[in-house]
Structure formats: C-alpha cells, structure tokens
Amino acid sequence: HSKDSELAGMAEKALKEVQYHLRYSSEWMIRLGDGTETSHQKMQHALNELWMFSGELTQGDEVDQIMQQEGIGADLSQIASLRNERISYVLDRATLKQPDNNWMQEGGKQGRHTEHLGYILTELQFMQRAYPNMKW
To answer: What gap in Å lies between CA 98 and CA 91, rounded to an integer?
Structure first.
C-alpha cells in the first residue's frame, strides 16, 4: 500500500515469493519438529542457535519511521504482530519451544555486520558478475 508506485509494484511481486517461502518453510518446520525424536532435537537446536538473528526483521529505526509516516514504508509493528502470531502457530504445530533467550542481534540496519556477510554477498552476486547484463 505504499504511495510510491515503484515500491508498491516491487512489494506486490515480492509478496508472492514471500508467501511461497513462508508456506514451504513452515511445512518443513512442522514436519521435522513433530517428526522423529532426532529431527525434533535437530530442529530445536537450530531454532535455539538462530533465534537471536530473527529480531531485527521487524525492529524499526529512524528511516523506517519516516517512511511509514510518509506512507512509503510499512508499519513494522503490525508486521511484528503478524510475525509473532505465525511463529507461535508454527512452533505449536511443530511441538517446538520458542527459545527463552530474548537477546537479539542488532546493528544490521546501521551497517554493522560480521565478516561473514562478504562471503554471502560474493556468492549471491556470482551470476551477475560472471555474466554482466544477463537477462532472466
């Protein structure tokens, strides 16, 4: 619902992808969490290890607030509420326990990243760099 038509168009296109990945990942969380004892333990361990990286997704900063006030960006508090509902639903169905640790990694929106991001970006940019001006 962005006032910026270009951004609204990108969001509309991305929404289909996001819905697909949400459905796919939720089904696997449920399948593995409520599966064998081993799959349950591995899923719980992964959840415990990665939980701290999930908070910044809906944590707004000054830029997010300005964009929301101007009708360009989303209200991250609404998204956080929907996200939390979905997480509770999936974890309940998967018989997984939300980690007790409430500490969340932050700083990505301010450009503070570990050295691992460079390796990830290199991998993601390989095709475009190997084949400049490639059309999909």
So the answer is: 7
